[in-house]
Amino acid sequence: MRFWHPSRFLIACLLMGGLCACALYHARPLPQQPDLHAGIQPLQVDAGQFHLPGLKPHPFDPAKGLDMTDVAILAVVNNPALRSARAQARAGEAQAFVAGLLPGPQLNYSLDHPTHQAPQYVNAHSAGIAYDLTALLTHGAAKAAARASARQVDLDLLWQEWQVAQQARVLFVDCVTNERKLELLTRLRAGMQSDYAAERQAYAAGNLALDGLALNLAALQGVETRTANTATTRNGACRSLNEVLGLQPAVSLKLVADDDADAHAPALAALDESLAQLPQRRPDLLALQYGYRSQDELVWRAVLAQFPGISFGITRAQDTSDVHTTGFNVSIGFPFLTGGSAAVHAAEATRDALWNVYQQRLDEAASEIKLIHADLGVLDSELAHARAAAPEAQQMLAGARAAYARGDLTAPAYYDLSIAALNRQLGTLDLGAQRQQLQIALETLLGLPPQDLLHPPVNEQSP
Questions:
Q1: Is residue 96 helix, strand or coil?
Q2: Residue 376 neighbours by CB under 8 Å, 6+ apart
């Protein structure tokens, strides 16, 4: 019976093991149609798995209507851009994992067949295995950089989820506010259309002058134009909200407005405290910290890579004279003679760029937060004044309506008072919407913390 040579058996085992460890190819054709939902009923939402700004345990029941928090949750669940970002994050995590792996050994085999046939000559062959020992020296830094990079990917995704959730909340405010404005305009338009129909009859009977009828028509047309424009704005805001939620444009959502009548700008002392804690809380800043840590490890890896590179191998051979030998080989490289310091400087330059990006992000956040805080103070004052004056405006409008019904007030004067009262109501709605949107922007910039981000990575112990 003929047995395999030990070196051939080793090679066969390594090849089989390598094939078993290989991943297989699976085809995945591209989609051929949109994947927007025609409603929210088939969506399954688990709010407990999301870290949204200020999100507390919140029941999700679309049958009762969607409030601002429901919209934020739904956006994180079903936003098309976030689905793509999650797929990219998985790819980034896989790449970071591969980057932290040790390189495998190098296996070589050679065969020499003598072209001069003679009884004393046999086929010569050699088999060997070698390993780059330098990889062991730099592996710790490479693995730490890979771990930090993977964490950065997770935090970047979390920041994208927060931004999408806040964008959905801003569009929610736009859609609800324009819906309320449209209701007010539609109600006034209906009343003016009814009054104008009566005035046309009065004009036909000779009881109303033509100039009076023309003034009334101009006022009615102005309200009709504003109503149409507001309807267009409402439709655009609601369609944009559907797009963020991953829904078809025609889907009509039942939105339940949040009452912010008692909302006030945060105290400056609390704002300063939040700013001081911002680097330990906001996901994008934490992601940059991990990215900086990863690059710092790469700088250290480049420093270590300057040391002489050593590769060691063992060889088993047989020459054409059938002489068997066993030996080893050692190779030494000198990277510091071939640009090793340049690699260190390049890695340090990248790290310095990340340092500046992080500092810029901190500076921008502080400036924007202080500016929004000042704007909120102005809006709070204007909104309080507008709400305090609302009852008086409603009383004046009721008195004007009664006077017009008695014939003590002309139609143009009544329309002017009605439109003035409407403008005051619309202005109050606009102020409230601006205030809510500024509050959302402030919450986004402050980055309200989930519990797993309370500690900065610089204080963590690497596993």
A1: helix
A2: 265, 435, 438, 439, 442
12 within domain boundaries: no
Structurally, the chain folds into a number of domains equal to: 1
Q: Which two tokens stand for residue 295?
A: 């690059």
235 falls within a domain: yes
The CATH number covering residue 369 comes to 1.20.1600.10
Distance CA 304, CA 399 (A): 86
Q: Confidence class of residue 430 from pLDDT cuts 50, 70 and 90?
A: very high
Neighbours of 96 (CB within 10 A): 20
- Domain membership flag for residue 307: yes
Determine the length of the chain: 463
Sign of the CA dihedral running 369, 374, 378, 381: positive
150-188 pLDDT per residue, tens: 888 888 988 998 899 899 999 999 999 999 999 999 998
Rounded CA-CA distance 245/37 in Å is 9
331 SS3 class: strand
Give the list of residues 6+ apart from residue 458 with CB closer than 8 angstroms, or none: 289, 293
